Amino acid sequence: xxxxxxxxIIVLAAGQSRRMQGRDKLLEDVDGVPLIRTQAQKARVATxxxxxxxxxxRPHPRYEALDGLDVTGLPVPDADTGMNASLRxxxxxxxxxxxxxMVLLGDLPDLEVSDLCKLARAVDLQxxxxxxxxxxxxxxPGHPIIFRNTLFDAFATLKGDSGGREVVARAQGHxxxxxxxxxxxxxxxxxxxxxxxxxxxxx
Length: 203
Hints:
Elements: E1 9-12, E2 29-30, E3 33-34, H1 35-46, E4 51-55, H2 61-65, E5 72-75, H3 83-92, E6 100-105, H4 113-121, E7 131-135, E8 141-148, H5 165-170, E9 175-179, H6 192-202
Parallel strand pairs: 1-4, 1-6, 4-5, 7-9
Antiparallel strand pairs: 2-3, 6-8, 7-8
């Protein structure tokens, strides 16, 4: 049984797959389903809160890949300026009373619903922790990341493609690393070679 949580999840899926030689990594097949749909489904199962999927401007096939899911597709007009545009716009779209939000990368196919829930269970809003971050089994920081609402205003000025590193840095000394199995927290697939190696390892 899944121990669901209630706060929102932002799925970052507006990137351009520049290193994929013309392919869209978020539309790559994972067990018969486009990766973006798989990630959105995991988010939907893990939380009873809202799921916001940051997307490139319409028209784009990623919208069709999400058809029928109870998620909110958020077009990011300036997505080509980098990941921080998605973070900035997605955090701005959150309800005002949101206590914290999970940010999930769209290209981490090995993450499981149980990983999202394990990270969420670590959240203690009575503590002074501001960031709860998934890590590898060896402790290397990765994703997903949960940000407390005390940091939300820091997203408003983000630009470029840093992936919110400035916000994590602002929380220095108040960051908890939560180990997840194996390399799931850092197993992003950015190139055709990455995908080929990943599929070979699964055979």
